[in-house]
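hey so i finally got around to running the thing on that chain from the lab meeting. sorry it took forever, my laptop kept dying and i had to restart like 3 times. anyway pasting the input first so we r on the same page abt which one it is
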Amino acid sequence: MRSSICVLLLFIISDFLIPQEQPSWVKNLKIENPAQYYFGIGISKISEQDADARALISFGQNVQVKVKSIFQRQVSEEGKEFSEKTTITEELISDISLKGISITERFVDTTAKTFYSLVQYRKTEYDSLVTREIEREILLLKARNKIMEEKREEELRAEKTRNLQEEEKKKEQLRAQQQAIELKRLEQQQEEERRALYKKIYGEFLQHTRPEKVVTFRNGEITHQTSSFMVKGAISPVQLNEAFYAVRLAMIELSGNVRFRKKKFDQQEAFVKIQILSNAGEYTQTTLAIGVSQAIASIADSGYKFKRSKYSFFASGNYTDPEWEYTTISFFGDKRKLSIGATSFPFYEQFKTHVGFMAEVNYFIDKDFSNPYRDLFTFGAGVRLQASDTFATQFAYENNEQFTLSFEFQF
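ok and heres what got predicted. didnt touch it at all, straight out
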């Protein structure tokens, strides 16, 4: 037992105290028979692991050209299509070069405190190893290429589908635009045909001047000549009922009116009218006028006293729609009364504007200007016979009390 312990101690002491003999690859930094082997030597004063790493790097650099050559040959043998799709990178070569490679031998120079590592493989053995690794890598590349090809095909199909959808969308938009253009053209054509038909049927009527009054009230029209004069008489009993005179200055009309009751002068009116809208519109026409009025009532009972005059702003107008039996709706309003009425030419196709019919309703705010019965509402209706643009006559029932006959002249 003592002898065994002594031998062990001597061995340990000799290992630390007696210098180890360096291998030839450490002394010469190369191996014997380098033609038969690939090798790499790593030297480090840091650690054994650092020396191992340096040895592997050196080995990889020594075999890099060989590995690349084998790889290129193997790839080319797979065919042109695979070869064109495969890129051999330096990273890939380095990775394959060291697959399955381990440190062959290590040496520690305790005196110099230096670590040595050796990687050594017989060339035939390494070439066989690398070839197998390359074949496995090619299988992986083929699998990756297939996946990428399928992905590209899927992307191409998706892009084709998107392109078809986009093309179909553009076609649909184009069809919609064409339909909209065609619809607009048809609408314009229909509108032109409607306009032409409307003008053919109603154009002549719309060119005619409108009557300046309904039965008793004057509407938005002004005299169509320089001057106009109207005289009206009651039929039963026969007597003078009303006289009117107007002068036109451009779109302004100055007019005066007198009314008689039982052969006595009873009412006086004066107007300044400005026509602000004259027969505006293509299919229907609108006329508007504004102005001021002065009026005196009950002159037969109280005498003519100008200071009893009542002043007011007024508005009047017409709306003509030939589709309503060639009818014009009229209105008038001031502080004395509100009036609305209509003039229609239902036989226009036979008689043009030579024969017309009127009707009106008046609401009196100031009953002094109503009839002798001081009615709140009065009604009037009549027939208008127009011989020419400058002469017309009218037969009417008005103010809830009498029949009248009037003659109107324009000059």
